[in-house]
Amino acid sequence: MSLFSRWPGRKATETASSTPVAEPEPTTSTKVLPKFLSALAQIEAPVVLDLGPVVGQNVAFFGDRLSCKLHVEDLAAVVEMYARNDNRASVVDALVQRLDRVNGPVDGILCWDLFDYLDRRAAPTVAGALVRLLREGGVLHGFFGTKATAVNHYTRYIVEAPDQFRPRPYAASPTTRTVFVTRDLQKMFAGLTVKESVLLKNNTQEVLLRR
């Protein structure tokens, strides 16, 4: 079961309000997440490391689906703290320290919305720390932007179904996205093999790597 207790559901009824309800974010199909889930389903009580913020819906989904032990290390929050202090160049040591304190090895890693915000010096070091944490046969599910455009938000990926996400942006210090193509990933994550790579409609490469 998950490290986190089950989050309470919504109330059956809500007080009516005159405030207009915001339109929900569109969903995005995923072909890679089902394969990540399938790989972990072969393991009894797998250990999964999530590198993003705590999302209650995701905690419940992975707990129910995999009966897994889920660790959350919000590395995007660390990146943002250094960005606000105008010290992005020094973030790599803080990220590696956070990963070193994870009680590994782990069977799966959710690497969503992180490497776009790391420079080419920091990224290989962080990738190497993740490789060291991943157990033999373990899998890493990652998203990597494909266009070096200006960005001013991170993205929470809310799992709606095994084959569907709902991306939800939230504020970030402005920067330019760092793009890593497949050959970059193969070098950065030396020791892992790219098993799946899919280009999504939002110009994001969705990747499954396996040790």
Descriptive labels:
211 residues, alpha/beta, Rossmann fold, six-stranded mixed beta sheet, three-stranded antiparallel beta sheet, 6 helices, 28% helix, 32% strand, globular, disordered N terminus
Q: What is the CATH topology assignment?
A: Rossmann fold
Q: Report Rg.
A: 17 Å
Q: How would you write the strand order of the largest sheet?
A: 3-2-4-5-9-8
Percentage of residues in DSSP E strands: 25-35%
Number of helices: 6
The CATH top-level class label: Alpha Beta
Q: CATH homologous superfamily, by name?
A: Vaccinia Virus protein VP39
Uncertain residue ranges: 1-22
Query: What is the succession of H and E elements?
Result: EHEHEHHEHEEEHEE
Q: How does the helix and strand content classify structurally? A: alpha/beta
Number of E-type strands: 9
- Mean residue pLDDT: 88
User: Residue share in helices?
Assistant: 25-40%
For the biggest sheet, the summary is: 6 strands, mixed
Overall spatial form? globular
State the domain count. Answer: 1
CATH-scheme architecture: 3-Layer(aba) Sandwich
Distance between the termini: 24 Å
Q: If you had to describe this structure to a student in words, what would you say it looks like?
A:
This protein has 211 residues and is α/β, with parallel strands linked by helices. It has a single domain (28-210), classed as Vaccinia Virus protein VP39 (Rossmann fold, 3-Layer(aba) Sandwich), CATH 3.40.50. The chain is built from six helices and nine strands. The strands form two sheets. It has a six-stranded mixed β-sheet with strand order 3-2-4-5-9-8, with helices on both faces. Strand 6 (150-161) and strand 7 (164-176) form a beta hairpin. Helix 3 packs antiparallel against helix 4 (91-100) and helix 4 runs parallel beside helix 5. The longest helix has 12 residues, at 122-133.
